[in-house]
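Quick one: structure for this chain?
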Amino acid sequence: MDVIRGDHPAALERCDAARNRKLLLDAARALMAQRTPEEITTEDIAAAAGVGKGTLFRRFGSRAGLMIELLDDDERALQQAFMFGPPPLGPDADPLQRLLAFGRERLRFVHGHRGVLEQVSRDPGARYNAAFAVLHTHVRMLLESAATTGDLDVQADALLALLDADYVAYQLDARAQTMDSVASSWESLAHKLCGR
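Got it. Here's what it folds into:
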């Protein structure tokens, strides 16, 4: 088996590909903080990343491919935070406090990724994917740790439904709620389910 040294062209290409991936994802994140995903073109992302449009297509295949990978990348970061990060979101905190911290953090995530999540949610297979399964397992585990009684799967489903991108968008747009009022409603239900 040949070992590829760090100065070998194949190793350099992998380094360049990893660098370009990060540049493109960071550029897309920055643009999404300013505009909706529909308003962002591949040209905008490539220009903000300082790479050619062809680099974006070679790495992600399409604009949709980049957005899905961005969502996946950020989902993994959130998972790391609630599984291994500091309290109250991470371990070593009271289960109810962890659940409340999770709700606030997930709501921020949904709000920040709203456009992409709304597009992805049109496909039920994409909506209830592996990332959703991790979120459901986490919420269910926190409910169980908080000594919640009843059908924990249904209760986890109910809590996660209130953090769904379409539901949050409806509350903010049609019902003129604020992020604080949506978070307060979610926390009220979490308190009731945990009996405190």
